[in-house]
Amino acid sequence: MESLANAQVGEVYGFDYKQPLSGQTRRHLAKVVQVKKLTENDINRLYSSSRYRWGDSQFQRTETIVVCQMHDGKYRNFYAERTENCTRSTLARFLFWSGAARLILRG
User: Fold this and answer.
1) Are 7 and 33 in contact (CB under 8 A)?
2) What 3-state class would DSSP assign to 106?
3) Separation between Cα atoms, residue 5 and residue 65, nearest integer Å
4) Is residue 56 included in any domain, yes or no?
């Protein structure tokens, strides 16, 4: 099983991502465009400058942010430590590059 924390830029991965607010897990198929390793200072800076989930004691940022291009062309950031069942496969790459993922996946 792969880890999105060790993802290679340019590769396509399928993974489950747990949303911290609702606790729900959703499957994603995405191409990795950047992997950012955050220091403790970076994380503290994000806590102090971002209004996202401000005051929520349950919310925790982790050290690896993976920037991904989604099947619809949009970009999204994921905390790698919140991913599970991360896989890299030829089929996932084909679905993403051929555009077939748009027909199969929604949202």
Assistant:
1) no
2) coil
3) 8
4) no
Examine residue 102 and state whether it is found in any structural domain, yes or no: no
Taking only the tens place, the pLDDT of each residue in 51-103 is 777 777 777 788 999 999 998 889 999 999 989 999 887 776 776 667 665 55
Return d(Cα 75, Cα 96) in angstroms, integer: 14
Structural domain that includes position 33: 4-38+64-97
Residue appearing with tokens 């929520």: 56
Q: Are 60 and 44 in contact (CB under 8 A)?
A: no
What are the φ/ψ torsions at residue 21 (nearest 5 degrees)? -75, -50
Read off the CATH number of the domain in which 9 is found: 2.30.30.520
Domain assignment of residue 51, yes or no: no
